[in-house]
Amino acid sequence: MPGTRMVVVWCPDWPVVAWGIPAHEPAAVVVNNRVVACSAAARSEGVATGQRRREAQARCSDLAIVEREVEREARLFEPVVAALEGITPRVELTGPGLVGFPSRGPSRFFGGDQAMAHMVADCVAPALARHGRVSVAVADGVFAARLAARRCTANDVADLTVIDPGGSAEFLSPLPIGALEMPELTGVLARLGLTTLGRFAALESADVLGRFGAEGRLAHRLARGEDDHPPDLRSPAPDLAVSWVLEPPAERVEQCALIIRSLAEDLHGELGRQGLACTRVAIEIETESGERHMRLWRHQGTLSAAAVADRARWQLDGWLNQAEQARPSSGILRITIVPDEVVPAVGRQLGFWGVDTSRIEDVTRVVARLQALIGADAVTVPEFKGGLAAGEQLRMIPAAAVDLAEERPAATPESLNEPWPGRIPAPSPVRICLDAQPVELIDTSEVRVEVSGRGELSTVPSRIRLEGQPGWREVTGWAGPWPAEQRWWDPLTSRRRARMQVVLEDDTAHLLMIERGEWFIEATYD
């Protein structure tokens, strides 16, 4: 069945607008060195969303780059949402820059979908102060309406798209399969030849469910113009609401942060005990003088406790920081969180191969905060580069230089194509000794073990002793040696070494290195 008739309002340039950057100045907002939004002037120079920072700067030399701040965007988006309340009180926020609401009542009142869409655009434009584009779309289902809203023109004017009732499936049919925004799943579908939503929608639902599971079923419903959980206009269950009275009333967001987090965790725990998950939540704030502020927040998946707490904090921050005539006149007295739409809980929302996408967002947020505190180059991540020594195979590079959301090659020697003569075979050591520990290695006759120029052992190793420690330990197993000569062409930096693996009587294993006739412990295995 078609989804509920929905209106979606999308401000694609909102991350730029929230920074107060005029449309005539080239600017881009980035996350993990990828452009997520850009101004009209930047687009005219060839900058586009999805580009890497360096590519965008190569296209526009005077491009201003700013990091995304979701909290700032949410706080400043409050006037836009307030403007829509003149049309309907049931405005649903998906995030800063993206809102929607069911169209049935407003459409009847204002004389049809087309007239209502024009009125919505007229209401939003003053709040944007003409700083960015706005797109308004009406369609059956949230998914179809969102895709229709993204069909913005390149001009800084409103773009109105109204899909006729029952026409969402036809509208979606020619769109590429990547519009589902499920990379793991759509990658498989594309390799199977299902390159458009229409081809995917033509499959039998039972076959999709059997092959791709719950995520495939959701994607199939979306491709057919249906929503997995269409908006529910019923009254929420009052016994699931959580509330807190503040004594004394709070004047700042920081005073409410712990209370908001506690309420979100209590709500999430109660929903979990009842086998439910929340897809839409109503957050109500009441002041000491009786003023009320309510917002509906929707999520494409299910709202975690952290997501609910973030949205409550954004809403409170946005209300408290409005213009003087719109902000509350007294302190915050009560905060209430109501699960406005619940569905049976089916576990975490994972990617097609089991990747928890919410964790990627958490890591990205933490890295961004650290970069703001200690500098972009001070936050580093490991990158596998190959090498002979255990400590040479990884290097630390700035997190700002990579996209943390992208899958990166596994840090294994097999991931490299270059030959590395003398490289130590798997498994890799667990602990690398920054300061190599000198050791003595002898055979059963207490003769020192050495390595010849041909890379051969002079005798069979039998016992080992760390320098400065009493007692010898038996060698129960060994492998190698692996000789390596590095930078032989440069007398100043050339090195000749050999390595071997040994297992001792206490079941510990070490990687030994001999250089200039002296043995050292270079690394230790688990």
Strand order of the largest sheet: 8-7-1-6-5-11-10-12-9
Instruction: Write the CATH homologous superfamily of the domain at 238-344.
Output: DNA polymerase, Y-family, little finger domain
The third-level CATH topology of the domain at 238-344 is: Dna Ligase, domain 1
- Separation of termini? 57 Å
What structural class is derived from the secondary structure elements? alpha+beta
CATH architecture of the domain at 238-344: 2-Layer Sandwich
Helix content: 25-40%
Number of strands: 20
Largest β sheet strand count, sense and barrel closure = 9 strands, mixed
CATH class of the domain at 238-344: Alpha Beta
Principal-axis shape: elongated
> What does the average pLDDT come to?
80
User: Count of helical segments?
Assistant: 15
Which residues sit in consecutive blocks of at least 5 with pLDDT less than 50? 153-157, 230-235, 348-355, 410-416
> Radius of gyration over alpha carbons?
30 Å
The percentage of residues in β strands lies in 25-35%
